[in-house]
Fold this protein.
Amino acid sequence: MNITPLVWIVTILVTIAFFVYEFFAHVRKPHEPTVGESARWSAFYIGLALLFGVGIGVVSGWKFGGEYFAGYLTEKALSIDNLFVFLIVMAGFAVPRKYQQKVLMIGIVIALIMRGGFIALGATLIENFSWIFYLFGALLLVLAYRQAFAGGDHNPADGRFMRFVRRILPVSDEYEGDRLTVVKAGRRFVTPMFLVIIAIGFVDLIFAVDSIPAIYGLTEEAYIVFTANAFALMGLRQLYFLIGGLLERLVYLAQGLAVILAFIGVKLVLHAMHVNELPFINGGEPMLWAPEIPIWFSLVFIGATIAVATVASLAKTRRDDRRAALDSTSAGTPADTTPRTEKEHP
């Protein structure tokens, strides 16, 4: 792709304009979005992302179009996983529902800034060091293992990092609207809202380490990496309120993402072997016998994995709900006519 500085500038300015509009039109005044509002804006941003991918395919060729769609799917799935952690953080800090929009907006902006920095760093490393693909591939395989087998009960709001932050910052006991600091008895305190923003930023940093090597395993074009990330993050706030209840039902999302990360990790290692320059591996010669996984296969594999993980998750939670209902019924009295509010639940 031949992306001129002007195209980069216009893309970045338009991205900033979308987030500025989001803040002033939806976030500035604290409120909880309705399902209808969330659905309309989620559909708008997803449609815009798909339209942009078609534009890349028409203008620059469908090889790059396929790379964009594979990258967008991967980043969207990782962003939804990020959203689930946001949900845990806000539950851990008991953030009032009407202020969650602001937290999400700030978290998404921090995520985009951090990913932008990692994108620039990744592009520089790839351009100058072909061996970086070995490192990226190994990192993704480790992350895939952790994603699949790490316990899901860790609460980022009560981790070691946040305990350290609480020790060094004076924190007020209660929320003061959506303010980040407050003055009491002549002394300035940070509010719990400020701690939430710090926790979200820390989570964003961790997820940037996942997402950038993953998408560089699908494309080496920094422009595609940036736009796929930007579109994956756009509309994430509305998606949070639209599928908030569904997030808890995606019980196999972590395993699905682990499969995707492992697949891209293997793809990166194979590519590293194909362009090998390390003198202690194969005498510094490329291993041309190593297969290059085509982008169409990557796109199909990623899409199928997300679909299988989603369907399997919903099927499992539906079975669990039916089993819980049967257990509840069998534990009740034969003539169970007690009003629901008065029942004694097991």
The first strand starts at residue 181 and ends at 184. Residues 335-346 have pLDDT under 50 and may be disordered. The radius of gyration is 23 Å.
